[in-house]
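Morning!

As promised:
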Amino acid sequence: MSTDNLIKMANQIAQYFASEPDKDLAVQGVRQHLQSFWTPAMRRELTVWQEEHYGADLHPLVQAALTGAGSKV
Amino acid sequence: MINIFDPATADLGTLDLGTPARESEVQVSLSIDGRAISVPAGTSVMRAAAMLGTSIPKLCATDSLEAFGSCRMCVVEIEGMRGYPASCTTPVAEGMVVRTQTPKLADLRRNVMELYISDHPLDCLTCPANGNCELQTVAGQVGLREVRYGYEGANHLDEAKDVSNPYFEYDPSKCIVCSRCVRACEEIQGTFALTIEGRGFDSRVAAAGGDNFLDSECVSCGACVAACPTATLMEKTVVAIGQAERSVVTTCAYCGVGCSLRAEMKGEQLVRMVPDKNGQANHGHACVKGRFAWGYATHPDRITKPMIRKSIDDPWQEVSWEEAVTYAAGEFRRIQLKYGRDSIGGITSSRCTNEETYLVQKLVRAGFGNNNVDTCARVCHSPTGYGLKQTLGESAGTQSFDSVLQADVILVIGANPTDAHPVFGSLLKKRLRQGARLIVIDPRRIDLVDSPHARAELHLQLRPGTNVAMLNALAHVIVSEGLIDQRFVEERCEAAAFAHWRDFVGLAENSPEALGPVCGVPAEQIRAAARLYATGGNAAIYYGLGVTEHSQGSTAVMGIANLAMATGNIGREGVGVNPLRGQNNVQGSCDMGSFPHELPGYRHVSNDAVRDQFEQAWGVTLQPDPGLRIPNMFEAALGGTFKGLYCHGEDIAQSDPNTQHVTAALAAMECVVVQDIFLNETAKFAHVFLPGSSFLEKDGTFTNAERRISRVRKVMDPLGGLADWEATQLLANALGYKMAYWHPQEIMDEIASLTPTFTRVSYAELDRHGSLQWPCNDAAPDGTPTMHIEEFVRGKGRFMLTGYVPTEEKVNSRYPLLLTTGRILSQYNVGAQTRRTDNVAWHEEDRLEIHPSDAESRGIADGDWVGVGSRAGQTVLRARVSERVAPGVVYTTFHFPESGANVITTDNSDWATNCPEYKVTAVEVTRVYQPSEWQKRYQEFSDEQRRLLAERRRAEKAEGRR
């Protein structure tokens, strides 16, 4: 799958949750959304990309959602 | 007036009681011809008599229209009243004594009838209404035996017919000027296209705005034809083939209104479709599509034999059903073996029945062993599913259509009901004529903004892509001006989420003064709209794809739900949040578990208890993770991991955005199985074609936008030999997953046993009730017209934050205009059905609407060919210069594949659901003289595919029909 598109979609999700002033809740929102609506393959692909590229281009909330506690993919 | 369905009197379905029902708590007793009856106050004497089984002769009265009192046939004698009052216009009174049959009345009626007949052709035996003519019936009732005036005097017998409308003709020589057609156009349809021209003897029916019916403002809904008591307005099919011999009640297969229709049949031949008076969604009304545009069902383009081919460059080969499904199953298994379990998937059809969509998702989950199933709601109302689930707890609209008749303020946002949901549009206009106030939020001046006797008090003509900014500004006004319904919010909603939301929308950055310029709407208009919505009484929101098909579609849906909760406009009649669903069964296909993350009844696949229940019932292990959505499938196909698709009655190659991306994905797959009634655009990329069946050819149910489950009844055998559910079952069995249903009702029983909101739904209960609105279970055995009455489905309503994030699709100097897309009344979606009917008389090509100032600066005149280019692609359309669109905005429809409207749309999508952003594409428009490169390629490819179809090899052995 196109990584560019995965990044774009993940960043759009983060932009929605960015309205939430509580950062922990925002991260949790992004993480839950990815788990509820993305296939495991898509999540894996994005995680691998983030590990290889140290998160460049990824919204901070997505980075946190993919790495923080409870971020099983 | 609305006729309420009563199962006890369902057999009266076609009986005409003369005047509409009245509702009243006061019962009035009277005597008619010596028999006593008690009826609600306000009922006419004519209706009361009819309820006793007494038929008073009538011509201008019919119970779908208010009494008019012009024909003088229905006169009666009433003790204590002078003269001979018309029973249609005389309301009952307590103790009234009525006589409907006396020698004097007989004389009066016969004399009037004699005058009518002196100017009426006496060609009953060859008249198309013969056997179904009210004039003929009444002449018989009154015992007319002679016409003393003769037939030589001045008359209208030589007047020419108007046959311009493709579906009905107007024969003025047979007109008795009863005005039923004129009144139907006003009261039922609300278009006001018909009038009576001239006075006295010269009075004639005329259609306004043109020389004939086709050129006039008539929208061909057929209400006048249904109301006509003679052969004056008559369906051409009846003229051609005569009166029907039986009728079957079924449900329309076009939009999400889901009108109940009576299919009038002669053997297996459909003579005409008439709206069913008992239909609880449509109450005896229909539109140009449902009523007339059914000819596609037997169009010669129908493909009735299964076909296969190795490559899309090969000619098709006709094979038996068994060979076709064996080949498809073999390919699917081969692909899974080579590329993995998740390398194939399916798309359920929102045009098929609930039973059929349920089977397709079951086949994917149980037969394919993955969750790669999706449906066209992905590209229309998936944000509704997400947004309403988050806020209210259930992925569906909150009201019945009839609820609009109790609304005081109606807010229409991103919807065009009079074009896309015409029968609901008529109901809405009726309410406007009764005095309800209308706010329209739309980039385009839709008909509702300014039409006869229906006008928007406020039209907020916002820039495409700014819905969320608009909703936040409206919320800001409600919060900052103290217009919150505090009691409702405190009792019904989560306090912390509300406080959070209130603080957020209360920020200065969300004020109309800040966001108005973003939307291109004056702040004062936004404030006025918010005040009207919050304080005008019962306020109802109706929205459509103009809300959902945006990068922030889901956010906008939540913004709408927030507004309704904040003002207490939810949980009773006359209010609510009402998504106008696009396709006939898109609500149903979503209910049936067509989304990759949800099992039937909107339950997430990760829920162990739910999965366990389905695993037991289906005898398989189900995957706990979501599968691919449609756009993900395309991405995966281009990435080489998705290789096989079972596409059930959906034309993704035309309907989905960024066509070239879609077709590249289809071309990258190794096995595409298309099940459809026509060789559609997607089928041109298919390796297996399974003939679909139209809604006339099978049993099942559709669920409309008000959650109403209605029966679809088979009136003819499937042209391809199998109904769609049978074909899916055959494919499942070929895959080694056993299915053995003998009738769709058995499938519904399985759905009911596994879905808590459907527990009490069965074909027997549907027959008993006429239709049922889910939830329909032990808590609500008669269904649920209005949701969230006592509490929200999720318990407390949850306010969600709705930060405005501008779309990435922005105008610049290269693409300075915003393109938005939509539908037109006469055509439906990708047009596969309506393009194959005479509806092309109203719309034979897609046009690009452009504002005069934008047209002038580009040297474009009305009718010129213009190139429309975006970051995704280019196409060429003809221009229509129109002030319906604001400067800077252009608009088109997507009903014709060669228009390539979706060649231009991008694969930008809603953040939560990937619903494509059809409604916002930055484009440039230039005058051109030839088709676009894409159109040339499209034409070549289509011509080649048509050749491969025409040269299909016929199977040598006989077709394997079951």
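Chain A touches chain B at residues 1-2, 5, 9, 12-13, 15-16, 18-20, 33, 35-42 (CB under 8 Å).

Hope this helps with the figure draft.
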